[in-house]
Amino acid sequence: MQPRNMSMSGVVDLAAVKAAGEARQKAETARREHAAHGDGSAVAATQLVIDVTEENFEREVLQRSAEVPVVIDFWAEWCEPCKQLGPVLERLTESYAGRVLLARIDVDANQLLFQQFGVQGIPAVFAVIGGQAMPLFQGAAPEDQVREVFDQLIAVAEQRFGVTGLVTGGEGAEQAAAPAEPIDPALAAGHDALDRGDLAGAVQAYKNVLSDNPADTEAKLALAQAELLLRVRDLDAQAVRKAAADAPADTDAQISAADLDVVGGHVEDAFGRLVDTVRRTAGDDREKARLRLLELFEVVGSEDPRVVSARSALARVLF
C-alpha cells in the first residue's frame, strides 16, 4: 500500500498551496456540521488516539489530516523508551481537545509503513498535515518539550495549510470551533490557475494579493512555490545537474540545480549547495545566490528545521 499525495521524507509538495485552500474549506464545513448537531457530534477524547495499520492508514491519517494535524507515534511492545513516550503523547493529545490527533503505529505489525517513512529507530514521531508528512523527533522526550513541538505543529498547520482542528466537547472546544476566515477570491484565483497549470497566471494572481496585503503569509508561500515551478518547468534536469557538477564556480548553474533539488525533495542538498556558493563567491554572484536561498526558505517554510539550520549556516558564511 503506497499512501497517495504524501511526501515520505519531508519532501516539499508544490501542490500544498491548493491543498491548503481545500483543507480550510473542509475544516470549515466540518465545524459547521458539528455546530449544527450540537454536543452530540463532538469528538470524544478516546477518539483522539487511534491505532493505525496499513489497512486503515489512508482513512485514519491521510483523510483526517485535511481537518486536523495527525501526530504519528511509531512504537513497539518491546521498546522501553516507547512506553515512556506513549503516555506523554496520549495525555497531551487529549489536553489539546481536537487540535491534534494521535495515530499509534506498531512497527512490528506494520513494516511497510515503517519503511515508507524511513524510520531509523523508535520511538519516532512524525506528523501529517493536509496529506503531507514531516518528521518531528526521535526518542523519548520530556512533556514540556513535546508540548512545545505540538504548539509549533498546530501553528504551522493553521498558517500554511489552513488546518485548524476538530470540534470536541472538551477543554479548548470553543477555540477549535472558531469560524475560519473565508478564502480571499484573489487568492482562490491563484490556486485555480495553479491547478490548471497556468503558472504565469498564478504568479500574477498572488502578486495581486500581496500588492493589497503585503503581510499575507499564504500568498507569500504560494507565490514562492509558483515562481519555483515556473523556473524549473522548461529545464532539462540532466543538463542542469551536469552543468552544476562540471562548473562548481558557475553561480547560475548552482542556482538552477538548487531549484531542481527542492522540487525533487532534496531540500538539504539545495540549501547546502547555495550556502557553499555564497561562501565561494563575492559581489553580484554572492548576492544572487543569497537571494535565491532566501526565496527557497519561503518555499519550504520558516518553521522547518532544515530552514533554521540553513539560516545558521548562511549567517556563519556571511558574518
Automatic annotation (TrEMBL):
Pfam families: Thioredoxin, TPR_20. It comes from the Bacteria. SUPFAM superfamilies: Thioredoxin-like (SSF52833). Keywords: Disulfide bond, Electron transport, Redox-active center, Transport. Residues 43-155 form the Thioredoxin domain. PANTHER family: GEO12009P1. Belongs to the thioredoxin family. This is Tetratricopeptide repeat protein.
